[in-house]
Each structure stands twice: as structure tokens, then as C-alpha cells.
Model the fold of this input.
Amino acid sequence: MFGYYFKLGVRSLRRNPALTALMVLTLAVGVAASVATLTILHVMSGDPIPSKSDRLFVPLVDNNQPKGYTPGDKLNDDQSSYKDAIAILNARVGVRRVIMYGFGPSVEPPRAELGAFNVSGIAPTADFFAMFEVPFLYGQGWGEAEDKAGADVVVLGRELAEKVFGNTNPVGQTLRLMGFPYKVIGVIDYWNPLPHYHHIIGGPGSFGKPDDLFIPFNSAIRHETSHSGSMSCDGNRDPGFQGLLNSECTWIQPWIETRSASERVDVHAWLDNYANEQRKLGRLQRKAPNYVWNVMEWLEYRKVVGNDSKLQAWLAFGFLILCLVNTIGLLLAKFSVRASEVGVRRALGASRREIFNQFLIETAVVGLAGGVLGLLLAFGALALIAMQSNAMSVVAHMDWAMLATTFIMSVAAAILAGLLPTWRACQVTPALQLKSQ
Done:
């Protein structure tokens, strides 16, 4: 009977075309607004590395001055000083440790017609590529030997590699960065985890374009490469780059990867022991708690998804509910004019359950039509949102999960809206309808 009722539902769309079009449009607008907002929230709040997000940790200590500090105060800054970062890198905890900072180097391409231009980059240690599962198109990253020596080698992003060297393998070529010759040893494939959990502070931002290149951390330090992004300095600092390294200024991002999520306690224990040792040396006098966040906790702590985005999603769903109320009224009007039809069917032996199933399937057909139109409207809304900024163009796209959600939400909303009108239709008394004919 489902197929028969479905055909009846399709035919019913043509009975009152104006009323049907109004229902479909009302439902489609509500679904489109909700899905467009939910899609952006889905991309922004998703797990960027589900295979290991529970065993990648950001360890931080509070190295600010004790003056003005009250126990329980939140951490003032979210990065590490050079001293603490090197200690984390050399720690015997976890399977991989990475420290990094962002920088904005100038590039002098071998093709003179391009001219020099600036890009965004990261200066990480060697485990960066394995820790964050970076895919390579050509070559590979550097090793521990190049890391310690601060070798002038560079890994390019695919977009930059194609811009400078064309559609060829540039491994072995030389590229001048900041006035120094760097040897290209690798090109990463398209890699743009959303959000940019590995490099939230500084750089292109949580939802910006991917970084253009990567050089060894010690190479950037050896060339006294200025960082890009925020820096917090609590206390006096000697002048010059060496003064920065000796200072308590925080500007470096540390990460630790463990074999399992349960080893988090080992990371915290090491961090507590390190902090106690530093206090004996006169540092970390605040005696504040030490912090260890996994990836999703880190995104929550950094408020990557702001309260305004969540509020917009709730408002969109409120608008959908308003559209459903209007759809209920339209369905009541549509089904009320078919009371005589229901009376005749009941008199011929149709049960209330059969009437209920027929009308409910008809509302599902309306929901399916609204889903198709709502999907088109959602794509249009996302396209308009993407035009606002580069960051929005990255997050305003629909995946298969949201595509399926659109249809499920539309049909479910139509069925929900059709429950009351369908129930009312089932209450028709056959005798009264037959007498009125």
C-alpha cells in the first residue's frame, strides 16, 4: 500500500497547486536556513583529526609574575616561552613532541616575472608531519639530524609549489626565503584541517587558508626569524633576539602525542615535576595549576566556535519551528476540504489507520519536495555566505552528511507538521459526510 499511497501523494500535489507551492516553499525556506547555519557549525565544531584527537595534547605552564595573581585565575596566555618549549621537546614523555611558531617570510622565486612576495609559514620540529598526518605529494619532511643542525631546507604547500615551479616536482630545487637559499625537500598535498587546531594562534586563523611552507624550527631560530602572531611578555626582556630566547615571553606552540589517551596522566605528571623543578630555580612563582588539553578541549578552551555561532544555529531552528507552525495551518486547510472523500472511504470500509497512513505519506511527499527546494536554497545561502570572507569560504560548504541531513530534516519536519492535520482528518464521521452529499 505504501507505493499506492505515495502515488496518491504525488497526485495530491497537483490538486491545489497554489496551496501546495506555498507549503513546499514555507518548509523549504525553514529547512534551508537551518541547514545552512547547521552546516557552518558542523564544519567549525567538527573533530579535525578523529584518529588521534584524544591523544594529542597541548601542555602549558603559567610562567607569569606572581604580582596581581589570585589562585584560581585563568591562564593569561596560551603559548610557551622558549625555555619551556625546549624542555617539552626534550622530555621523555609521549611518542612525539613538537614545538613550532608561525612566521611570514618573503619569497624570492626563481622566475623573475613573479617578483618577491610574502607568504605564511610555520617553523616546527621534525615530528610535525607525522604527528599531524600531513600527506606528501613529493619528497618528505626533514629528519632529526636536519632539525638539530637547523638545516636550510623547506617543505612547500602544493599551491605555493605550483605557483613558483609549475606542475613539476620541485624537490632538489632552491628557493630563497628571507634572503637565504633553502633547498626544497618536499611538497605536501592539499591539507587544510578545519579548524586549524595545530596552529590556532597567529597565522591564517582557525578557518583561513593553509600555511604555504614549513622550515625547521632551529633554522628559523638560527636566522633570528621574527614570529607572526601574538606574544605575551610579563616582566623585563633584554633587547635583541637572544633576549627574546632568554625571556619569559610566550610565543611558541608545544604539542605532545602519546600512544593512548590513558597516557595523559603521564604527560600531566611530567609537567608537574618540571614545574616543581623550575620553582626551585626561581621560576613559575605563581604556583598555578599546569594544563594539559587534548585537541577538542583545546578548541573549546580557545573558543574556536563562539557563542554567537551557536546562537545563530538556535535562531535558525526557531525559524524552522515557525515555518512548521505555518505548514500545519496550510495542511489543516488542505485536508479539511477533503472531508467528504474521507467519509466515503470510511463508509466503504477503510479504517482510520489506513486514512492516517495515506495522509501521512502525502505529507512526506510534501516534505520531500520541500527538501529538494530547501537543498537548492541552502546551496545558494552558503554561496552568499562564502562571499563574505576567505574564512567563511572555507567553512561554507556542504558534505554528504549534511546533504543527507537536509532530506531527513525536511521529511521529518513535514511528517511532524502533518501529525495534527492527519489526526483531525481521521476523526471525520462517515454518516455526517454522506448525509451532506
